[in-house]
Amino acid sequence: MSASSKPVAQTWFGPITAVQRRAMFALVPVAVAFGLVVGLAFLPLTSAFGGLAKVGSETVLELPDELVLPPAPESSTLYASDGKTVIATFGDQYRVQLEFDQIPESVVNALVATEDSNFFEHNGVDPEGVMRALVTNLADGGTSEGASTITMQYVRQVLSYTATTPEEVAAASEVTIDRKVKEMGYALALEEEMTKHEILTNYLNTVYFGNGAYGIGAAAQVYYGKVPADLTTAESAMLVGLIQSPSNYDPINGSSEAAQVRRDHVINRMVDVGFLTGAEGDEAKAEGLNLNPQDANNTMGGAIDSDYGFFVDYFEQWWNQQEDFGDSEEVRKARLYRGGYQIVSTLDVDLQDAAQEAVERQKEMGSEYALGSVVVEPGTGGIQVMAVNRIYSNDTSENGPNTSNPEYKGSYPSTTNPLLSGNSAVPGYQAGSSFKMFTMLAALEEGLPLDTTIYSPYQYTSKYVVGDGAASCGDYWCPKNASKSEQGDYNMWTGFGESVNTYFVQLAERIGVEKSINVAERLGIKFRSQEDLNLVTNSPETYGPFVLGVTQTTPLDMAAAYAALPADGVYCPPIPASSATTLTGETIPFESACDQAVSVEVARAAVDAARCPTEYGAAAGNCTWGTAPQVGNAVDGPVAGKTGTTDSNSTNWFVGFTPNAAAAAFIADPDSPQNLVGKGNLGKPANAVAEILAAQWDMNGEGDFTPPTELVH
Fold this sequence. Notes:
Residues 374-687 form the Penicillin-binding protein transpeptidase domain. It comes from Glycomyces niveus. This is Transglycosylase domain-containing protein. The chain crosses the membrane at residues 23-45. By secondary structure, this protein is an alpha+beta fold. The chain contains 25 helices and 25 strands. It has a six-stranded mixed sheet. Strand 5 and strand 6 (213-214) form a beta hairpin. The termini are far apart. Residues 1-72 and 400-409 have low confidence and may be disordered.
């Protein structure tokens, strides 16, 4: 093939010219002495001297022979657990490719003045900047000065975009002598073959400006609805000011004040360097931000476009917290949307579809009451199901109630609120008696056996001081059982099966409620409500109502907590993905950080008691009757669990499990907790879980519960 007929290679910012190719594939030798200076200039004093020998003997000699240019950005694909069914794609492609003559002088001047005032004088590395950094860093023993030129920033940008594995991500941005020397070597090589205008053009076409805008062409449109040629000096300065930290200076979704302060700093630098007169600078700073935000139209796929939106949304939030994929959420998200990963999730689409049908059979789509369920796999933490009677969508225009308020963004029929997994804005829902499991586990840990018998009256005056209130006798908390017929001698089998409140309150008094809280925390229960957090942190030993589930939690937390029981006490934090394959074919496995939260025998004893509510029957003891017999009747295999009902029926729960799946379901009004679910909705979470676990057992009916050999009598 002749040279003229070779296909043109592509980068993320357009075709690679012959000049660019030679530049990026050639490196100028870097002297040992230069490495020594760099080491002193860019690392704290204490670490610089320790690393100099390595720089001199290894780093300079080991610079690679070529710099691999990144491919065009590719969207990432999220598959179901079968590795075949596509459930979401993530991608952004919003770039406006510009030639140098399409970039206004005000943008170039703002960039040079702020980031690299000697850009047109140096050859890729600014000796004056290096020495200034050396003096400053030697003085304060830190790294307050970096001396990165625009060319070096561009090199770092390319290396970061190229990175696909966590190790490559770290190498592209680590603060080491080795990385700085390599970065400078590439910068020197680039400036040998590329013009200053080419470097500026490539840099300004690729750098991220926030809000989905990559490159100055996209940024001008997203922030001002303009082409770059129409930007004013003040607007150019504002956009260039974003480069240092798009999130900190974001004027659309963040702080317009911070953005203006940063813009004025850029304008002042333009005056200092001589690109503007003092009067021109004052005139530019007198302008308002004058934003005209536009949709970047760069999102392709994601949760909004998926039939499994709540799961996909949770996956994306989880991905954004994985530090191995970047040192900020912004970088991690960019890598997901542009890295071309092939990701296998834990979602079982067949079980998810069955669960969605089960949920909607119990409570129709669009009801004011949210009914949702999560399924977690014991022993792995894999999230197999996230189903709720809501549409994952930003279109909440027809939501109700309170539709008289045009700003109302409730949760039905559409929402993007994480109703199943929670966040700081969605702390969850009171879980009621399903929390009794944590007290039973704590009691078993303290050596109390399953046949621990306590006389439990209809109403019991506890030792916990709560002051005046509906559930107090004098100043003391005095809870009641569900009916006056519930009184007498109970043990853990019968007390758990019939959900006897006064039995578990007395059990907590014997061991200390703080131990119940500790077990819940070990099993992954998070306290998202500030009130709950204050109580469990500051006065756990007096927080008696915790035993009966007044704390807010989520189906995801509860399913993962109960999943530890059939896993012989091993708790696995929930995880939505099993692996990701990079563009280069490397597979990165994901595994939950599982931990032996409770002992094997404690878990097996708790499972035995938990068989009573479903009327599956205990192996080591005798049950009486259960609060959720429909679960045992529906599942053609071993099944256990616990109902949960709160005072006045504000919420209702069921958490159940087979040997290989744990499911939690709730019903509540997430927009108005005072809108009680009422008796007519009680039992619907248990009905939904019964169907879900029955379907799961039909698909994967394996395993059995191992009876306890200790902690029985």
